[in-house]
Automatic annotation (TrEMBL):
<keyword id="KW-0732">Signal</keyword>
<protein>
    <recommendedName>
        <fullName>Outer membrane protein beta-barrel domain-containing protein</fullName>
    </recommendedName>
</protein>
<feature type="signal peptide">
    <location>
        <begin position="1"/>
        <end position="21"/>
    </location>
</feature>
Amino acid sequence: MSFNKFIISVLMISACFNSNAQEIVDKKNTVYFDFTALMTPPNRLSIGYIRNFGTNYFAGIELGHSIDKNNGRNNGYSKDYQLFAYRLQVGYNFNPEKRFQNYVSVDFQQIHHTETLQDDYFRSAELSTDENTVYFSYDEIEYKREKMTFNVNYGFFAHFNRAKTFGINPSVGLGLKVVDVTFSNPVNLNIDDNELKFWDFGSRYRKEGQVTTANANIQVKFFYKF
């Protein structure tokens, strides 16, 4: 190969790398919509923003809010559903130059959820004098759930176009969650001694008190980069 051809080849390769680097640098901002939060009850509308730092690192924030006050609990009567959530995330993108980009991240999420429940029961956080579980039935009661999660996630950005401006971002994660549920202002509260409730593992709406357990995080997001 002649020297001139070698120089031309080097310049062409350099131009390609510069073009890819410029493309990565230019698209430092990402906005997204979390499809999973909208479809999972009690649902909410969640949107987020991600900012790239350098080539591989990124950080983001996500905000979620309930849409309809009547669109909360789906397995019983309720009203006045309100939910606000935020999520903070930092991560590392292994191959930002590709159309299919793998990453790992850690995130912290907090959820504040209130709702008025009707015609149901809950398991009290306090035991009876003989150390048995106590259930209460009610006509109406105020429900509040505070939840915090910490997750380690794996996900990928799958771009729909060569310019890498929009696509889909599935992710899965594992971590811990701390949930604190309280009930207040009951109407017609009574002790419910129905033994069939022994087999009822309950739901988030039927367990009073604070608990720390493992957490699974699954998200499917549609994004736009600019």
